[in-house]
Amino acid sequence: MSKISEILQKNESELLADWIKEQLAAIRRRDLMSDVDLQTQSTDLLRSIANAARSGNVTDLSGSEWAGVRERLNDISSSRARLGFSPEETATFVFSLKQPLFTKLWAELSKDPSAMFTELWNATALVDKLGLMTFAAFLKTKEQLIAQQAEEMLELSTPVVKLWQGIVAIPLIGTLDSNRTQIVMESLLSTIVATNSKVAIIDITGVPAVDTLVAQHLLKTITAAKLMGAECILSGIRPQIAQTIVHLGINLSEVITKASLADALAVALQKTGKMVVRIDKQNAKQPENKDGVENKQAADLKGA
Amino acid sequence: MGDLLLVTIQVDMHDQLAMTLQDDLTNAIATHGSHGVLIDISSLEIVDSFIGRMLANISGMARILDAQTVLVGMQPAVAITLVELGMSMPGVKTALNVEAGMELLRESVTGNRLESGDDDY
Prior knowledge:
The complex is a heterodimer of chains A (304) and B (121).
Chain A: H1 3-10, H2 12-26, H3 35-53, H4 67-83, H5 87-95, H6 98-109, H7 113-156, E1 161-164, E2 167-173, H8 178-195, E3 199-206, H9 212-227, E4 231-235, H10 239-248, E5 256-257, H11 261-271, E6 274-276, E7 293-295, H12 296-302
Chain B: E1 4-8, H1 15-32, E2 36-40, H2 49-64, E3 68-72, H3 76-84, E4 93-95, H4 98-110
Parallel strand pairs in B: 1-2, 2-3, 3-4
Helix pairs in contact in B: 1-2
C-alpha cells in the first residue's frame, strides 16, 4: 500500500495550499482564470487523485480507478487550451504538485531512507505521467481547433450571393482544388434551387492561376448547373488568365465568358428578360420601381 | 397540358420499366401530336449511368418525333453525380421546376415569348 495515498488523504488542505502557492509562483494568468476557479479546479483534481491512489496502484494509470483523474485532466487541459493558456502553463499546473508532495513525503519518511526513495520515485513517476496526459490532451484540443478553423475558412471562401431575381453570383477567391470544387458545386446548386435562379455568374477575379485542372473543375461546375436548368457565365477573367487558357488549349467555346462582373450582369439581366433604363425626369409616367429596372414587356409596351 | 406531355418519374427505374416508359412515351407523342415533353425527376434521389443514358435516349426519340424534351427538378446531388459520371447530357434541355420547364417548352414550341408578369422584380 503506497504511502502516497495516505499522505494525500491526511494532508489534503495543506497540500492544496502549498500546491496553489507553487502554481501562483510559477505562473499567474488572472486575466484567463479567476483565483476562485483555480482553487476549485485544484481541489477537485487533488481529491480525485487521492481517491484513485487509494486503490494502491500509483504506477499504472490506465486502469478504471484512474478514469476519473484522466477525465478531469482532459477537461482541465482542453478548457485551458481553449482559454488561451500556453502548453507550459498548463503542464506546470500539474508539475507544481511535486514540491509539496515531496516535502510531505520527506516529513513522513525521513527516518526510513529506502522507503522514502521508493515513495519519492513513485510520486515523481505519478506526477510525470499526469503531466504527460495533460500535455497530450492540450495538444489534441489545439489540433481540433485548427481543423475546425480550416473547415470554417473553406466554407467562408465560397459564398453564393443573389444578384437579382433569378441571378446568383459566386465570387471565387483562392485556388480551386477538387475539395473546394465539391463545396462550390454543392453550395451553388443548393442556392440555385433556393432562389429559383436561371443564371449563375462565376467570377474568377480572385483565382490566382488557372491551369487545366482548375479549368476542368470550373467546367464540371458549369455542367452541373446547366443540368439544373441554370446557365453559367464566367466573368472576371484577367488578361494573363486569358493567355494561359489559350496556350493550354482549354476549350471554353460552350461557355459565355466576360471580362468583368458588370458585363456578366448585363447579359444575365438580358437573359432573364430585364433591362436597365435611365429614368427620364421629363417623362410623366413613373417606372415600375425606384431603380428604373422594368421588365422588357413593360418597356416594349411603353415604346421606350 | 394541351400540346405538352408531362412525365413524372417517382420510382426506381429498372430495365423493364424503362423500356415500357419509352414505348408509352413515344406512342403518346404520336397519338396526341405533342410537341413538348416535360420529364419531372424531382423525386429521383439516386441516379446511375443507366438512368442518365435512358433519359438521354428518351430525349433523342422524342426529338425524332418532333417533340422537344425538357428535364426538370433535378436535385443538386443528382446533378453532381451525373457530372462526376461524365454524363453532361448535351442536347437535353433542363429547367429548375415544372413552371420554368413549361415556359421553356412554350417558347421553343410556339416561338413566342410568354407574357410573364408574376415573378418579376
